[in-house]
């Protein structure tokens, strides 16, 4: 089954191409991360974002550089989409000094202050407070910055999310909650852990909700643009519920997945709902872009990422004396 | 002895509650990024009335009444701290720290380190400790040992109005997270505080009374117990030194060890539960640093290892008393 | 303005009289508690339930003795309504050995195991997990017991409530969440702390909600009866949202309240919405009960409660050696 | 030395993970009120695969996959425990204890006491400790000192498959709340476990190796570090005793003090952060109880007071090593 090409509502080819490149960059980065793990060249584990690229890119393309995001354990896509450099990210994942966190954070804590990424978080739901507080701060400091809180549907199980959504709504804070529903909390289908109607939850706190196809980057971008405009205008928080799917395992080591999801399910998403294929198909069919130019983008990015990973592998580790630096400012 | 005497020019006697109120007012005035958030902190000025009047001067935008969401307000405080603000999060009772440990420990304490020094969280969490208010097991705990165990957090335990004001101002200006505990029973305690502005450095113990024969290392509420015990010991001809670390993190190990080396005998007083509490660390530090100068084992006076009971006849046994400390110290000096 | 007498839908005079006596018992008990405080004869503070009696009584009259309840810092009413004896309660509030908790718990931790009261709780929202777990247990043990979780609207700020409501709904647990909305979280009006629509919150988790006039004991009882039947039948949790009002301060020491609520507001509730006056009025007008018999009930209860408080004041404190008993079973 | 040798009849070598799995299976079989609740505990058998197969034998009604709601499942476990069940709540990483402190500390630990002994909470919380898995600051903490500080909780830290099985079975049968920590790095560690059923008493330390010159008091993961250091010390002619408290609460003070009295020199090893950690209490207990028999100060080997960093070159410095302990111990015996 080939991916059906649908008109991606109101997408300009320029934006489409930019987003295609970003999504391709995430995809390629993640494939290298997987290789690094399989080649035992990366310490620890990593949670791949492959399949969900349209969410991070669609949302972050609706943000300014000085807007904030908070991210998750599955955070490489958010980090890249918000403007991070591939090489410094590889350095962080490899525990190198040139990494965004000087090797102290690793995959699950990567942060990019310069681009407003307040950090990945290894506590599910752990950044809901941070994002809401950043929105509070933007308002208190009189800026028109917006904060986006990315989280998986599993974070709907964490009470703190409801505590802060309540305050965000009460105080009309400029925060956008972006729920990436990729159907699984680790190895358990979300339907076994989530009662009632997800969209009704933020709504109950007076937060407007928009449900979008997380594989359609233009739909995500359009919804995010509306939510961000609302926040910037002082009209308060919004909640984007994105239907998506992780194509790989929960983490790089999660290879035998048959006990919790079927090969057929995985195949149908990969073949019919691949966000890159959907956007690429549209760019070629309706966006007036030639397959060649898409090919060129892919080749350029492949080269960029390969060079970055090679450099990162060569880069030095931090000085051992750094171990007790940065405990206190 | 940094404690001021009212005789000094420009020194007033005010309560610990007033001292805290002044510290917050001064910092709110000085720095527009400072704000206070908590339950019933605005019009009510907290159930202890410690914040009375602040909302009138600074408005509801900087002194915020929150929902009953300790984790949420701490998380919001943290996010604000990471993006240019200096929040003071009011956790009404220290017992409610149980609800904010993830925000404080997994998030606030670690963000600077995990980001390789690039992110900062100048967050102050103000809360309480102390029993004997007939408030029973969920409103009487002294949980400062928990946060003191977490790298990345600083922990302050003022015992006087002077220390409370100076340490709180320092906490608010610190670029990292600080948890500050005030003893609920001490809010009405009066002491000398200078008219002019001041701050107090962290990591500097304060000798509340000098002595030669035995050192009483005491935190927060226990400083008064130690001072009273010292009085009674004096009547017996035993000269007790009372030394207050004032901050557990950073800890002025040198000062504690120096006092122990001088006296050779040490009793540690802390209102947390005895086992695996702050008194253990203070005793271990002295034991390591002054071992060859100690004439007797380092003893501990702390809350009994029981949940704090409601009934006065039970509760009053759970917290160290001057009499008990007097006996302990006297036994050390071998006079009993 | 006198209390308007409305027909109390489908209330039998017998049940009405029983509930009247229970509500009167709570009212009288609480008035004595206030006196004990003002006379400095009670250690610590207490949170009076006066004005809210119809909620506890209406709900507990729909329960069996072996059903469970969890209670709050404002828990005397729940405890009495579930069947506790006045004297043992006074003993507990006075820290006496004969108290329900041998004086160890006091007002905020009073529990009455024999009658299924798993305890008051001094942590707002602190018993949501316990009640839900008791319901889980009833189901797992194959009984048809039901658990009722009483809490104030302030507990809507505690995330754990949403965590357990989600599981109660997922697993169809026999639990009834009873929210006593008395309009205030301590000294702050709930509208300043509660965004959106309260009833929509449990609904978002798939839990049916019923809103009732908490001053009308028959309405509370009818709604509770439906919710309890639903739970017992294995149809899962329910949420009762009761509109009520505390006539006294947040605690006995909260005397000057003008800075957070008006004397007029207090007066209108006391004069027009007093649950005892409403029920008494109905019993006299429609319930075929003479004012005299109501008077008799009041006199009997007054005598009972006075005798109990007198006995409790004389009762011995626990042996000091009990201080380190009951730490570990 | 209770540790069994495979030579003994009816003793198998199994991994710590298998030992835990067996303990749960046996208790689930023995007692219908026992159930397990946690995230991905059923089909997935936890990310560590420790619970694999249990759901197949006992069904989804007794081995429950939960939402990602640590506070909620602990609260539900507590309520079930108070009403006739014996829940085992699985908290995937010890770092997530931050989310359940209110349920564990303000509720479970206190309900028996606050009710004057009338309510009981036979609740077991199983969780992990330990670093060096390249899991960084939020998945590497050893927070057992926190719960050990709370009266009403018992705290177990098994270091071998034998101890893990016996202590877990005892925890499940205990009528009060128990928090049990397993070292993530030890799940694959094998050791002798008897075929026949057994339980282990709480509060009984285990001498993992006898010695005369120095006592190494070690918990959980640090027992192996201590045993390795003891080997190396033996080569230097120094006889080290390795003693494992096995439970912090109740704590076998007598055994620790007796060992200290015998050797006169003590190093305490614990993987929690050094300051205000379990090592402080263990050192203080020895310092109090064996003071007049100690030839040198009680030293501590614990995790550095830094959040656990990701980069291997940094992380590997944060946890005590056999070499470091060897040096510490040798310095005590005055040979360095
Ligand atoms: C508070 C907390 N509980 C449990 C975990 C372990 N854990 C890591 S990822 C994960 C599943 C998260 O699912 P979801 O939020 O949907 O994000 P996804 O992995 O699907 O992107 C869990 C349970 C954790 N990191 N934090
Ligand atoms: C977790 C927690 N936060 C704060 C408090 C302090 N406190 C005690 S009662 C109360 C207000 C509770 O309001 P509500 O739940 O509406 O109950 P009500 O007092 O109105 O009956 C607060 C904030 C507490 N006991 N527990
Ligand atoms: Mg998911
Ligand atoms: Mg209320």
Write the layout of secondary structure elements.
The complex is a heterotetramer, with two copies of chain A (329 residues) and two copies of chain B (336 residues).
Chain A: H1 13-38, H2 53-60, E1 68-70, H3 76-81, H4 86-93, H5 128-140, E2 147-152, H6 159-170, E3 175-181, E4 184-185, E5 188-189, H7 200-204, E6 209-213, H8 217-232, E7 238-243, H9 263-272, H10 275-285, H11 291-314
Parallel strand pairs in A: 1-2, 2-3, 3-7, 6-7
Antiparallel strand pairs in A: 4-5
Helix pairs in contact in A: 1-2, 1-10, 1-11, 2-8, 4-11, 5-6
Chain B: E1 11-15, H1 16-30, E2 34-38, H2 54-58, E3 63-65, H3 70-81, E4 86-90, H4 101-114, E5 124-129, H5 144-148, E6 154-156, H6 161-173, E7 178-183, E8 190-194, E9 206-209, E10 214-218, H7 222-235, E11 240-244, E12 247-249, H8 253-263, E13 266-273, H9 278-290, E14 299-303, H10 312-318, H11 322-332
Parallel strand pairs in B: 2-3, 2-4, 4-5, 5-7, 6-7, 10-11, 10-13, 13-14
Antiparallel strand pairs in B: 1-8, 6-12, 9-11
Helix pairs in contact in B: 1-6, 3-4, 7-11, 8-9
Bound molecules: thiamine diphosphate (TPP) (2 copies) and magnesium ion (2 copies).
Distance between the termini of chain A: 55 Å
Low-confidence stretches of chain A: none
Class per helix and strand makeup of chain B: alpha/beta
Shape of chain B: globular
What's the order of the H and E elements of chain B? EHEHEHEHEHEHEEEEHEEHEHEHH
């Amino acid at each position: 089954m080939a991916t059906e090409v649908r008109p991606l509502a109101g997408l300009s080819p320029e934006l489409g191409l930019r987003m295609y490149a970003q999504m391709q960059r995430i995809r390629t980065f993640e494939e290298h991360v997987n290789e690094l793990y399989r080649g035992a060249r990366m310490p620890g584990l990593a949670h791949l974002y492959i399949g969900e690229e349209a969410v991070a890119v669609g949302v972050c393309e609706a943000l300014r550089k000085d807007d904030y995001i908070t991210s998750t354990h599955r955070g490489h896509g958010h980090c890249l989409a918000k403007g991070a450099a591939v090489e410094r990210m590889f350095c962080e994942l490899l525990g190198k000094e040139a990494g965004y966190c000087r090797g102290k954070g690793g995959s699950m804590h990567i942060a990019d202050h310069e681009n407003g990424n307040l950090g990945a978080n290894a506590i599910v739901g752990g950044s809901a407070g941070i994002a809401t507080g950043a929105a509070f701060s933007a308002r208190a400091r009189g800026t028109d910055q917006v904060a986006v809180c990315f989280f998986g549907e599993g974070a709907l199980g964490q009470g703190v999310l409801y505590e802060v959504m309540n305050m965000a709504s009460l105080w009309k804070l400029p925060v956008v909650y972006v729920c990436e529903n990729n159907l699984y909390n680790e190895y358990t289908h979300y339907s076994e852990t989530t009662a009632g109607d997800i969209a009704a939850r933020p709504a109950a706190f007076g937060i407007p909700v928009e449900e979008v196809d997380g594989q359609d980057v233009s739909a995500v971008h359009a919804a995010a643009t509306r939510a961000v405009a609302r926040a910037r205008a002082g009209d308060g928080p919004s909640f984007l519920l994105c239907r998506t799917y992780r194509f790989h395992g929960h983490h790089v080591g999660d290879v035998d997945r048959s006990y919790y999801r079927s090969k057929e399910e995985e195949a149908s998403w990969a073949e019919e709902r691949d966000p890159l294929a959907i956007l690429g198909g549209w760019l070629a069919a309706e966006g007036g872009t030639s397959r060649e130019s898409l090919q060129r983008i892919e080749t350029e990015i492949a080269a960029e990422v390969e060079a970055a990973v090679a450099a990162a592998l060569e880069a030095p580790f931090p000085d051992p004396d750094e171990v007790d630096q940065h405990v206190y400012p | 002895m940094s404690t001021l005497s009212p005789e000094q020019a420009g020194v007033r006697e005010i309560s610990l509650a007033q001292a805290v109120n002044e510290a917050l007012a001064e910092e709110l005035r000085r720095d527009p990024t400072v704000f206070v958030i908590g339950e019933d902190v605005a019009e009510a000025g907290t159930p202890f009335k410690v914040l009375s009047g602040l909302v009138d001067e600074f408005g509801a935008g900087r002194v915020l009444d929150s929902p009953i969401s300790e984790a949420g307000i701490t998380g919001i405080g943290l996010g604000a701290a990471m993006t240019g603000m200096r929040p003071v999060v009011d956790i009404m009772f220290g017992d409610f720290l149980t609800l904010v440990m993830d925000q404080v420990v997994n998030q606030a304490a670690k963000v600077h380190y995990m980001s390789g020094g690039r992110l900062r969280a100048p967050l102050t969490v103000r809360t309480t400790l102390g029993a004997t208010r007939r408030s029973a097991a969920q409103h009487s705990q002294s949980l400062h040992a928990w946060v003191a165990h977490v790298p990345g957090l600083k922990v302050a335990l003022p015992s006087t109005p002077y220390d409370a004001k100076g340490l709180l101002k320092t906490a608010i200006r610190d670029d990292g997270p600080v948890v500050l505990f005030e003893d609920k029973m001490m809010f009405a305690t009066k002491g000398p505080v200078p008219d002019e502005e001041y701050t107090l450095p962290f990591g500097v113990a304060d000798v509340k009374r000098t002595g030669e024969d035995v050192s009483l290392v005491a935190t927060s509420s226990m400083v008064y117990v130690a001072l009273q015990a010292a009085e009674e010991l004096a009547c017996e001809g035993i000269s007790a030194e009372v030394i207050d670390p004032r901050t557990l993190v950073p800890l002025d190990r040198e000062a504690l060890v120096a006092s122990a080396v001088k006296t050779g005998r040490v009793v540690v007083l802390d209102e947390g539960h005895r086992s695996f509490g702050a008194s253990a660390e203070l005793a271990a530090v002295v034991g390591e640093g002054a071992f060859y100068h100690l004439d007797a084992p380092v003893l501990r006076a702390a809350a009994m290892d029981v949940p704090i009971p409601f009934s006065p006849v039970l509760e009053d046994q759970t917290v160290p008393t001057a009499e008990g400390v007097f006996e302990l110290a006297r036994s050390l000096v071998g006079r009993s």
